[in-house]
Write a structure and sequence with these properties.
Immunoglobulin-like; five-stranded antiparallel β-sheet; 1 helix; single chain; 2% helix
Length: 573
C-alpha cells in the first residue's frame, strides 16, 4: 500500500463505549477576547463585560483567575443574555492599567468552575490593552521592488488619514479593512508599495491620522521605506511562548525565517540568551530551539534567540517566554479534541476517526508510538476515554495524544478525557456523526497524501528533497488517503486492523472524486473506497486520473450525498 502503519502514525505525531452523555453542565463563552482596548497612559481602562452560559443541564458555579495583576475579575448575577436567547452570567473585567507603560499588553482570564465535572471548563479570555493607543508612532520597513508591505493596527473608533511622501510618488497609503463585529474594532493598514521606476534606496513620508475620539490615535506617523534587491528576513513568529511542567521531557520547536525580498536567504548562526534552559541551533531555514524545565522552579523565564543571516535587515531577534508550572493533572485545551486531518477545533468528527487530543501534561514520556493494530488503550503512560470507555491509541507525547474515536459509540455530543498517573483531565466535548470526510495532506502544505501507481507523490519534481515526487497523467491509478469516511461492510471493530484480503472493508455509502474540486470539475467514481488493509482508522480511495484535465495544479475533493471533504491539490502533466 506504499506506507506502513508505524510510518503513518509517526508522520501524524510529528506533524500534527455506547453509554450516553451525562447531563453535566457545559461552559460556553459569548466571546474569548477583549480588546485591544485603547487606554490613555497613566489611566485605568473602562470595565469590560463578557457573558458566559450553560449549554446543557444543571447550573454553573464560575471560578475566575487572572494571569496579570492589572486585570481584575468579578462574577455577576445571572440575567438575560444580551446577544443570544436565554440567561447568561456576566463577567466583569476591570483594567487597572494606570501603572503600565506605553505599548500593547496582554493577559489571560481563566474561566473555570467549582464543579470539576463541568464539561469544556476551563476556558480562557485573552485581554489586550493598548496603552497610549495602537496607532504606531513610526514605521520603518524593508521592501523588495515589485512587492509591497502592510503594517496593521486596530482602533476603537474610526480614523481619517492623509498620506504624504517626500518625493511626491504614490507609494504610501492608509486603508481600512472593514469594521470588526465585536467591540467595534476598526482594522487599518499602512500600505507601502514601491513604484515601478524606484531604485534601491531609502524613502520617507508621513501618515497623519485624525478624527478619533481617543486623542492618542490622532498623530503624525513617520514612515521610512527601504527598497532593496537583497533578501529580507521575517521570523515565522513575533514571540515564542512555551508552557512546560516540571519533570516534562525537553520541548523542541523552531523559528523559521521567511524571505520577503529577492535573492537567496542564507542563515549563518543562531544564538540563544536567557539561561541554560534555552538552546538554539541554526539550520538552513531558521533556528531549532530546545526548552528544558530541568530543575527550574515554577515561574516565568524570559530569553531570546538571535538569528544571523545575509538579509538586508540584519539579525532577527525573537523573544522567548518560558513558563514552568508544577506537575499536575493532564489538561485538555478547549475544543482540543480534533481530527487528524483538519485539526479544526469545534469541527464535527466521525465514528472511527483518527483523533488528536491537544493539551498539557498529557504524558511525561518522550514521544511514544504505540503498537500496530490491534491498538493498545494505553501508550506512554497515558490513555483516553470517550464517554468513560477506553479508546484505542496511536501515540502519546507531552502535548498530544492520538486515539481512534470508537465506531461503537452513538452519534451526538460525547465527552473525552485523558488519564495519566491515576489523574484525569478536564472533560471536553466533541460532536460525532457517521461521516466527516477529511483528505490527508503532505506535511503542512496543500498537496494531498496521494500516491501514484509507481509510489511517487503527484507533485512537481523536487518538491520534497529525498521524496519521490512526479506529476500524474491521465490513466494513472492514484491512492488517496483519508479519514472519517464512515461505516464499512464488513464493519471493523475499533482498534482492530482492517481485513488484509478481499473483499477488504469498503464503505457503505457511494463516494465520488471531483478533479477540479467544485462546479465544473470532472467527477469520477473510484475503483475502491474503504479502509486501508491492516490499518486502523485509515481509509483509501483508488481512482484513475481521467482524460482532459488542465495541466498543472488541480484541486481534488471527495463527495458524498450529505457531505464534501476538504480540498487538496495534485499536479498533472
Amino acid at each position: 500500500m506504499g506506507i506502513n502503519q508505524r510510518q503513518f502514525l509517526a508522520v501524524s505525531a510529528l506533524f500534527f463505549a455506547a453509554s450516553g452523555l451525562s447531563a453535566a453542565p457545559r461552559l460556553r463563552l459569548v466571546s474569548s477576547t477583549v480588546g485591544p482596548v485603547a487606554i490613555a497612559q497613566g489611566s485605568n481602562g473602562a470595565a469590560q463585560t463578557v457573558e458566559i452560559y450553560n449549554d446543557a443541564d444543571g447550573s454553573l458555579s464560575p471560578k475566575l483567575s487572572s494571569s496579570a495583576s492589572w486585570i481584575g475579575t468579578l462574577v455577576g448575577a445571572p440575567r438575560a443574555c444580551s446577544t443570544r436567547p436565554g440567561n447568561c452570567t456576566p463577567i466583569t473585567i476591570s483594567l487597572n492599567t494606570s501603572a503600565l507603560p506605553a505599548g500593547t499588553t496582554t493577559g489571560i482570564v481563566t474561566v473555570a468552575d467549582n464543579d470539576a465535572n463541568v464539561v469544556d471548563a476551563p476556558q480562557t479570555i485573552t485581554v489586550t490593552a493598548a496603552i497610549g493607543g495602537a496607532v504606531p508612532g513610526s514605521v520603518d520597513v524593508y521592501v523588495a521592488p515589485g512587492s509591497s508591505r502592510d503594517i496593521t493596527f486596530s482602533t476603537n473608533s474610526q480614523l481619517g488619514g492623509v498620506a504624504k511622501t517626500n518625493d511626491g510618488a504614490q507609494w504610501l497609503s492608509l486603508a481600512v479593512d472593514g469594521t470588526g463585529t465585536f467591540r467595534f474594532l476598526f482594522p487599518y493598514r499602512i500600505h507601502l508599495v514601491p513604484t515601478s521606476n524606484m531604485q534601491s534606496g531609502t524613502f520617507s513620508g508621513t501618515v497623519t491620522t485624525g478624527g478619533s475620539s481617543f486623542a492618542a490615535d490622532n498623530k503624525t506617523i513617520a514612515v521610512t521605506m527601504r527598497v532593496t534587491s537583497q533578501p529580507i528576513a521575517q521570523a515565522s513568529t513575533d514571540k515564542v511562548q512555551v508552557r512546560l511542567a516540571q519533570g516534562a521531557p525537553p520541548l523542541s520547536t523552531a523559528v523559521a525565517l521567511n524571505n520577503l525580498g529577492q535573492g537567496t536567504l542564507t542563515v549563518s548562526s543562531a544564538l540563544s540568551g536567557g539561561g541554560s534552559w534555552l538552546t538554539a541551533t541554526s539550520y538552513p531555514g531558521g533556528a531549532a530551539l530546545t526548552l528544558d524545565a530541568g530543575t527550574l522552579a515554577p515561574g516565568t523565564y524570559t530569553g531570546s534567540v538571535v538569528i544571523a543571516s545575509n538579509a538586508a535587515n540584519g539579525n532577527i531577534t525573537v523573544p522567548v517566554e518560558f513558563t514552568v508550572v508544577a506537575k499536575g493533572a493532564p489538561s485538555i485545551k478547549y475544543q482540543g479534541v480534533v481530527d487528524n486531518g483538519s485539526f479544526g477545533g469545534g469541527d464535527t468528527v466521525a465514528r472511527g476517526d483518527v483523533m488528536v487530543v491537544l493539551g498539557d501534561q498529557l504524558s511525561f514520556s518522550p514521544l511514544t508510538v504505540g503498537p500496530a493494530p490491534p491498538l493498545a488503550t494505553s501508550v506512554g503512560g497515558a490513555s483516553v476515554t470517550v464517554n468513560g470507555k477506553p479508546a484505542p491509541m496511536y501515540y502519546s507525547s507531552y502535548g498530544q495524544l492520538a486515539f481512534q474515536m470508537p465506531y461503537e459509540i452513538s452519534n451526538g455530543t460525547v465527552v473525552v478525557q485523558a488519564q495519566r498517573d491515576g489523574l484525569s483531565s478536564n472533560p471536553v466535548s466533541v460532536v460525532v456523526a457517521d461521516r466527516a470526510p477529511r483528505l490527508l495532506l503532505i506535511g503542512v502544505g496543500t498537496y494531498g497524501a496521494i500516491q501514484n501507481q509507481d509510489l511517487s507523490i503527484p507533485m512537481p519534481v523536487g518538491s520534497f528533497p529525498g521524496v519521490n515526487t512526479h506529476p500524474a497523467k491521465a490513466g494513472d491509478a492514484l491512492t488517496i488517503y483519508a479519514i472519517g469516511l464512515g461505516p464499512t461492510n464488513p464493519q471493523v471493530i475499533s482498534g482492530q486492523p482492517a481485513p488484509a484480503t478481499a473483499p477488504f472493508a469498503p464503505i457503505t455509502s457511494t463516494a465520488t472524486v471531483n478533479f477540479g474540486g467544485g462546479i465544473g470539475g470532472t467527477v469520477v467514481v473510484p475503483l475502491y473506497a474503504g479502509l486501508t488493509p491492516t490499518f486502523a482508522g485509515l481509509y483509501q480511495i483508488n481512482v484513475v486520473v481521467p482524460q482532459g484535465l488542465a495541466k498543472g495544479v488541480v484541486n481534488l475533493t471527495l463527495g458524498f450525498s450529505d457531505s464534501v471533504s476538504n480540498s487538496v491539490q495534485i499536479y498533472i502533466q
